[in-house]
């Protein structure tokens, strides 16, 4: 997006599944130049799925939408995309309002008076009306009238709901004029759109010090403003594990260099955006196969602080004392960063303990914390920061489409639920019908007082669409989603959630899932069967385990205790199969997660040294907690390639290694063990020969 130009892109249209011959599809682009209400065509017969729009006016806001078209007609338009550009509209004495303070249920909206000739400074003071819109609804309703000030606090908002606000002005004794440009509070946009594209590896050749990631930002206007720029979080996983962990957050740029990667491992990276309303969904995963030689010299690594919940469910920050050369007593300072702000502000100073209890955090914000050791001579280097990510806001309740009951050859009964509005407001309903290939909706009943209606006079071999529009005594609400009656068979649809897996024996589990449904009401119902597919990790190949399952549950037998599995379900009919459900993972073993950083060397003597390392943790799915021990392996460089066990069943995260020769070099590495399962080794640490008398 430029100052006066914008490039729009959209997903390609899909032809009907049952179409025998697909006519060429082109696209029609329409625009709405706010505050005008009319839609005007900008371009048609567009063959590509993107279009470049030049010469946008700087004093207008725009809505854009796209229709697919072929020789048989046009599709329904897409949801409109709002592109705000104007600070104020011509002839309107109010600037675009801004949101200056926001809480889960309240928001304060502020605006400025613009010097418009028809509203001179000698006129009477202006009074303002604040209006609100709740997308996807299109109607505006007044929140406050005759506001004398230039700001207003709106209360009683629903957490997680999207809102738009605009302002109208009037003089004493006059009527309200045209509205100002609107401002949006997009709380749920972060759970539905990804403003990231083209995540790629920027390095042409590996330099064995890290990889540089780069990505593009997709322009979604509500995601970015000068006051609150869009920030990013980089996440990483190590296949075959599907556990993602943050690498860095709060990035203001679209590139980042990831360091401290381990040899002989594969990685996946993805990026999220950090918005004022929460985290966005992640970008697609970028696989990186990374190899580098063994390190030369030891490099002490600072301990990573941890965020834990204590017995009273309070959040506590804990850390280990850093390894320093000074013997002076250490005190600590805890600092906090609350994106979008990049400033670190102190929470507590002069802490003598190695933990701190954190209070007063907001329920829907993200935070980062860091610890700075201090001596009497001044502060030391900060420990690595640790992040706390807020949970996403709950989704709003969307209206359901009507149900078709009592389906006969020439009649049916429509049934629907009352919309979620004040139950004391009386509602009536209008029933509209559409007969494809016609795109025209025609009313077949108005003023219906009940939540059902009997439709008659249908032809058995025709397709129909029905929609219901609720009305109050003063205005119409948005129509409910339309429902389709089709004479053609359709594929079944499974709910996107994963099936449930319950262990019923040492080698068996019981799978269960929600029944599939037909996404459209079909005159001829086809029987639905199910297929169970299985994948043995770390393999990526799905194999059919059972076909033609008529029930919504299945008993899986013969599972091995040393393997892990994934299962998914498909719905089958004679017309076609559904998309597979999300997979459920069945964990059969407790593989510890071991940070593979190189051990730390301390207390160096000619014939001994103390090794210390970070602890291993068990995955959250572990039902029993086996003890974790460690194995120390040693290698003499003259015997490169041969590792031998120096000590096993070590219960602690440090060990005193003795009987070393001062004229020899050594390599050490660590493995974690639990339930006779051993992890991959840590990176080796290099101990150089010591001077001898």
Oligomer: single chain
Distinct helical segment count = 0
Q: Which CATH class of the largest domain is shown?
A: Mainly Beta
**How many structural units, i.e. domains?**
7
The CATH homologous superfamily of the largest domain is called Immunoglobulins
Helix content: under 10%
- Looking at CATH, which topology of the largest domain would you report? Immunoglobulin-like
User: Could you give the distance between the termini?
Assistant: 71 Å
| Estimated structural class | mainly beta
Shape: globular
Outline the biggest β-sheet.
5 strands, antiparallel
Rg (CA only): 32 Å
Give the CATH architecture of the largest domain.
Answer: Sandwich
Structure commentary:
This protein is mostly beta strands. 0% of the residues lie in helices and 42% in strands. It folds into seven domains: 6-83, Immunoglobulins (Immunoglobulin-like, Sandwich), CATH 2.60.40; 98-185, Immunoglobulins (Immunoglobulin-like, Sandwich), CATH 2.60.40.10; 191-290, Sandwich (Immunoglobulin-like), CATH 2.60.40.10; 306-388, Immunoglobulin-like (Sandwich), CATH 2.60.40.10; 403-486, Immunoglobulins (Immunoglobulin-like); 500-586, Sandwich (Immunoglobulin-like), CATH 2.60.40.10; 600-687, Immunoglobulin-like (Sandwich). Strands 2, 3, 5, 6 and 7 form a five-stranded antiparallel beta sheet that branches. Strand 17 and strand 18 form a beta hairpin. Mean pLDDT is 79; it is low at 221-227, 292-302 and 391-397.
